[in-house]
């Protein structure tokens, strides 16, 4: 499993994808940091983090698109699946490498904090809470992206579908604003990623929200495992 | 040792494998032969645990693939039809990755060096896999299969894309590996299987249609009494002469090879070479060529695949396939009436 994790993580930087993801994240983080923090003269990074949520949605398909789709296209899945490593370990290794890539992107938040510390006193609990929160919600998105990647041989299709799914998930919140039906609102509240992430952006860590993201991650990694196992029996 | 028992695999509605069973002993090379789509790769993919089967079992050195896949997979080196290479890695990095993936417990540096030397890829170790030629990619694929020195090697068309010199080299390597490994080698090339394997399993439409040692199969192919004779002669007299030789069951006229020279094929119930020679020697005809037809492994293979024993080639091995007249007359089987007519014709000359 360690071997797969190392290879997958290194592969992000063996092609322009890893650098493009990092550059995109740093670019948008820089813009939001300037506009919503430095320009208006506040030391609160909460607005920056909330705005960055959409950037995360954009970069996650780029991180997960290749995980299984490329292996199938290049037939390297034969090397993995005939090695003495179980399918859950393969799925976990790919998930962890994608999560590690996201963590590298999130290091930009620490830089934000350090920059602020020169001119004011940043709230490190909010910064740490945010990194934790975005890692959790991001991990759920990553698990979904890996699942989608396992369904196709096309990297482009995997990226597009993941992106569309991510956008649809964030649009769930807007459904709530268009209806007064309580049942719909309740379901939307339960399923809303953005609502839960907003709590982290404010530095509030709720156990139920943490459990929600972990559950989504687990469910989709399990689905991925089943898809690969099912293909062996097809 | 590899024991494959009653493997059955269905893809949606098509039966890809139907009750496939065979055994490969230690130090034995088994050639899995069959036309494209016969089920060779499916068999190999099931043996290596990449695919599952509907029923049946695979035992690798006493370990059941279905019950203990992780343990069984450690004992296998697999080169699939398309080598599983990461094109963004260098050969060295890739082999290091595969070494770790296979959980090999040997000194990494020395072992990779040995494998690279065996497969002759030392010179490209620092190159990106994406920049390698097909031949080198195939060899890197073979190198990863050899990592960990597994007792069982499964090689799916290992010489595809190699140049003739490399093919000889890889075949030599496989033969060497076959001395102390159980090797399954698939190919649709008969010559390849014939050159390397101790035993041949012919698979067609998912079923095993023949399982014999290479020498037995080749020998059985030779068990035919068919003789090609080229002589300077009169065609019809020669046909009569040959037909009347004791033991001859049929004579076919093939073609006129040059002016006044004709070629015939003689089928007989026993070896009639001496009788043919003596019969012709008694006339004023001259034998230019006399050659027994050997059914090649290819004939045997094609016969098995088509469901019946194939007849030997109707042309002598060195006969020009486009000989004028051969098509028209190749199937002229002599009958008693024809022989009589021939005698009359010749007397007019």
Oligomeric status: heterodimer
Number of helices of chain B: 13
Q: How many domain units of chain A?
A: 1
Number of DSSP-assigned strands of chain A:
0
Beta-strand content estimate of chain B? 25-35%
Show unreliable segments of chain B.
308-349
Largest sheet of chain B: 6 strands, mixed
What is the first-to-last residue Cα distance of chain B? 71 Å
Mean pLDDT of chain A: 87
Could you describe the 3D structure shown?
- The complex is a heterodimer of chains A (234) and B (349).
- With 234 residues, chain A is mainly alpha-helical.
- Chain A is built from 11 helices and no strands.
- In chain B, the strands form 3 sheets. In chain B, strands 6-7-8-3-9-10 form a 6-stranded mixed sheet, with helices on both faces.
- The model of chain B is unreliable at 308-349 (pLDDT under 50).
- Chain B is elongated.
- Helix content of chain B is 35%, strand content 27%.
List the helices and strands and how they pair.
The complex is a heterodimer of chains A (234) and B (349).
Chain A: H1 2-12, H2 16-38, H3 46-64, H4 69-74, H5 77-81, H6 87-119, H7 124-151, H8 155-178, H9 182-191, H10 193-201, H11 207-233
Chain B: E1 2-11, E2 14-24, E3 29-33, H1 40-47, E4 55-60, E5 63-64, H2 69-73, E6 76-79, H3 91-101, H4 108-119, H5 134-146, E7 152-156, H6 164-177, E8 182-187, H7 190-196, E9 199-204, E10 207-213, H8 214-222, E11 226-232, H9 235-243, E12 248-258, E13 261-268, H10 273-281, E14 286-292, H11 297-305, H12 326-329, H13 336-348
Parallel strand pairs in B: 3-8, 3-9, 6-7, 7-8
Antiparallel strand pairs in B: 1-2, 1-4, 4-5, 9-10, 11-13, 11-14, 12-13
Helix pairs in contact in B: 4-5, 9-13
């Amino acid at each position: 499993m360690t071997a797969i994790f190392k290879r997958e993580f290194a592969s992000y930087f063996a092609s322009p994808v890893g650098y493009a993801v990092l550059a995109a994240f740093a670019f948008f983080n820089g813009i939001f940091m300037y506009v919503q923090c430095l320009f208006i003269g506040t030391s609160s990074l909460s607005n920056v983090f909330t705005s960055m949520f959409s950037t995360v949605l954009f970069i996650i398909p780029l991180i997960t698109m290749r995980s299984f789709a490329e292996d199938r296209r290049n037939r390297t899945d034969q090397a993995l699946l005939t090695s003495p490593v179980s399918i859950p370990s393969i799925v976990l290794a790919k998930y962890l490498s994608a999560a590690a890539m996201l963590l590298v992107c999130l290091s930009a938040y620490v830089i934000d904090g350090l920059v602020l510390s020169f001119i004011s006193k940043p709230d490190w609990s909010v910064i740490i809470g945010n990194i934790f929160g975005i890692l959790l919600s991001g991990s759920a998105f990553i698990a979904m992206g890996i699942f989608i990647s396992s369904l196709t041989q096309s990297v482009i299709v995997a990226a597009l579908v993941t992106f569309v799914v991510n956008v649809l998930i964030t649009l769930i919140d807007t459904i709530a604003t268009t209806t007064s039906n309580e049942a719909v609102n309740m379901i939307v509240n339960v399923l809303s990623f953005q609502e839960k992430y907003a709590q982290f952006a404010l530095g509030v860590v709720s156990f139920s929200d943490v459990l929600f993201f972990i559950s989504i991650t687990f469910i989709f990694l399990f689905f991925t495992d089943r898809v690969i196992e099912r293909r062996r029996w097809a | 040792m590899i024991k494959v028992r009653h493997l059955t695999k269905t893809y949606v509605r098509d039966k890809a494998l139907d009750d496939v069973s065979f055994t490969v002993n230690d130090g034995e090379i088994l050639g899995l032969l069959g036309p494209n789509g016969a089920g060779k790769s499916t068999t190999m993919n099931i043996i290596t645990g990449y695919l599952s089967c509907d029923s049946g079992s695979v035992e690798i050195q006493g370990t059941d693939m279905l019950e203990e896949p992780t343990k069984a997979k450690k004992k296998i080196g697999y080169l699939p039809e398309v080598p599983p290479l990461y094109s963004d890695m260098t050969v060295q990095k890739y082999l290091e990755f595969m070494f770790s993936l296979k959980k090999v417990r040997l000194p990494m540096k020395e072992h990779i060096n040995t494998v690279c030397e065996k497969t002759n890829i030392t010179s490209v170790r620092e190159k990106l896999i994406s920049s390698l030629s097909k031949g080198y990619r195939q060899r890197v694929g073979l190198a990863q299969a050899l990592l960990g020195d597994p007792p069982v090697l499964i090689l799916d068309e290992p010489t595809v894309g190699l140049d003739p010199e490399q093919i000889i080299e890889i075949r030599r390597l496989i033969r060497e590996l076959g001395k102390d490994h159980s090797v399954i080698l698939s190919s649709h090339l008969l010559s390849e299987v014939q050159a390397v394997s101790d035993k041949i399993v012919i698979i067609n439409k998912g079923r095993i249609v023949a399982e014999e040692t290479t020498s037995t199969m080749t020998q059985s192919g030779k068990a035919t009494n068919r003789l090609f004779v080229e002589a300077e002669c009169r065609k019809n007299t020669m046909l009569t002469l040959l037909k009347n030789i004791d033991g001859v069951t049929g004579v076919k006229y093939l073609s006129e090879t040059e002016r006044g020279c004709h070629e015939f094929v003689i089928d007989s119930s026993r070896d009639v070479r001496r009788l043919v020679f003596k019969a012709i020697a008694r006339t004023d005809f001259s034998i230019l060529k006399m050659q027994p037809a050997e059914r090649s492994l290819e004939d045997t293979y094609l016969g098995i695949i088509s469901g019946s024993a194939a007849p030997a080639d109707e042309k002598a091995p060195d006969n020009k396939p486009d000989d004028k007249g051969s098509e028209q007359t190749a199937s002229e089987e002599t009958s008693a009436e024809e022989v009589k007519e021939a005698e009359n014709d010749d007397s007019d000359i």
